[in-house]
Specification:
It is a single chain. The protein is of the alpha+beta class. The chain has a domain of 70 residues: SH3 Domains (SH3 type barrels, Roll), CATH 2.30.30. Strand 2 and strand 3 form a beta hairpin.
């Protein structure tokens, strides 16, 4: 009888920690892109001919031009240079990351 009790105790103590390791029903796992999205904002360009630059500077290489209504994602990094606040953004139009002066951006989400 004691032997059966010891075996049953060992089985229970082995299984209890394992059952707690599984996720609860109805939970979902966030993907990497979801996590990135949570930490960023959506922006709309509010002027025509806005320069998307390679660096946060008025003298940074121009990667492309943006126009009123173009959508960008970013905002996780900002820098002040040349007296201007620059925002790191991803341009869906150009498919690249770059920098835009914050005065040309309106946060939309």
């Amino acid at each position: 009888m004691l032997k059966k009790f010891i075996i049953a105790s060992l089985v229970v103590t082995t299984l209890v920690p394992v059952t707690g390791a599984f996720a609860a029903e109805g939970t979902t796992n966030a993907t990497k892109s979801d996590l990135i999205r949570i930490m960023t904002s959506d922006y709309e360009v509010n002027a025509d001919g806005v320069r998307l630059r390679a660096s946060a500077s008025s003298s940074g290489t121009v990667l492309g031009l943006l126009y009123k209504g173009d959508l960008l994602n970013g905002g996780r990094e900002q820098k002040v240079a040349d007296g201007i606040t620059w925002v790191s953004v991803y341009s869906y139009k150009h498919g690249i990351w770059g920098w835009v002066a914050s005065q040309y951006l309106t946060e939309v989400g």
